[in-house]
Design a protein that fits this description.
By secondary structure, the chain is mainly alpha-helical. It has eleven helices and two strands. The chain has two domains: 64 residues, Winged helix-like DNA-binding domain superfamily/Winged helix DNA-binding domain (Arc Repressor Mutant, subunit A, Orthogonal Bundle); 151 residues, Four Helix Bundle (Hemerythrin (Met), subunit A), CATH 1.20.120. β1 and β2 form a beta hairpin.
Length: 223
């Protein structure tokens, strides 16, 4: 094992074991290196790597701290990696979204508040019946984000947030090229919202599946 990898594993073990907790400040570099049996150089490289994936927070002139380890913070690294996807993997991202998002929508049906439902309704009303494709896609992202946030599962929310980027361009192309794509999307949004208002988890799950599958089906036919 490379010395930097060994240093990363040792710091990770300290966090997993509870020796270092969220918000804790790491001991001085010289002390920590000695305690872990590492060179200061390999420890420094490990800290740099762990700060890139938001495990550690290096504060100039103050020290190095364990972050909150909040799922949204940690999964930002996923969004960064996802940005490097190739066009031929978009279908795979959509397939993952089709597995996760209907489940989140079903969960939201049992948890979403009346105020959140009213906010989603107002958002759709503001969009109107004939929005531009760009406005529709932006609204689509916010619509689904609002629903997933209402599921009460922050990990699921962060995962889906990270996966939404690669499918954005596909949704724009669909809106530009498929007949009635805009109208169909709006109708599906209304159907999802109606199921949420009825607190019908299975109907909400089904409409979310139909909604995502329609984009996936269109994309398969164009590749």
């Amino acid at each position: 094992m490379a010395v930097t990898d060994e240093a990363i594993v040792k710091i990770k073990d300290m966090i997993v074991s509870g020796a270092l907790r969220p918000g804790d400040r790491l001991p001085k570099e010289s002390e920590l290196a000695a305690d872990l049996g590492l060179s200061r150089n390999s420890l420094r490289e490990a800290v740099r790597a762990l700060s890139l994936i938001r495990i550690l927070d290096v504060r100039q002139g103050d020290g190095t701290y364990v972050t909150s380890l909040d799922p949204q913070l940690l999964l930002e690294a996923l969004s960064f990696v996802v940005d490097f996807h190739r066009d031929d993997t978009v279908l795979e991202f959509l397939a993952v979204r089709r597995i996760l998002e209907p489940a989140a929508t079903a969960m939201a049906a049992l948890r979403i508040s009346e105020q959140q439902l009213d906010a989603l309704t107002a958002q759709l009303d503001k969009l109107g019946d004939d929005p531009s494709v760009e406005d529709l896609v932006a609204s689509d992202l916010e619509f689904h984000r609002g629903i997933v946030q209402s599921s009460g599962n922050s990990v699921l929310c962060s995962l889906l947030d990270g996966l939404s980027g690669p499918t954005t361009r596909a949704r724009i192309w669909r809106g530009l090229t498929q007949e009635d794509a805009v109208g169909r999307t709006l109708r599906e949004h209304r159907a999802i919202l109606a199921a949420l208002r009825d607190r019908d988890a299975e109907a909400a799950r089904s409409w979310a599946t139909v909604h995502i599958a329609s984009v996936e089906q269109w994309l398969r036919s164009t590749l």
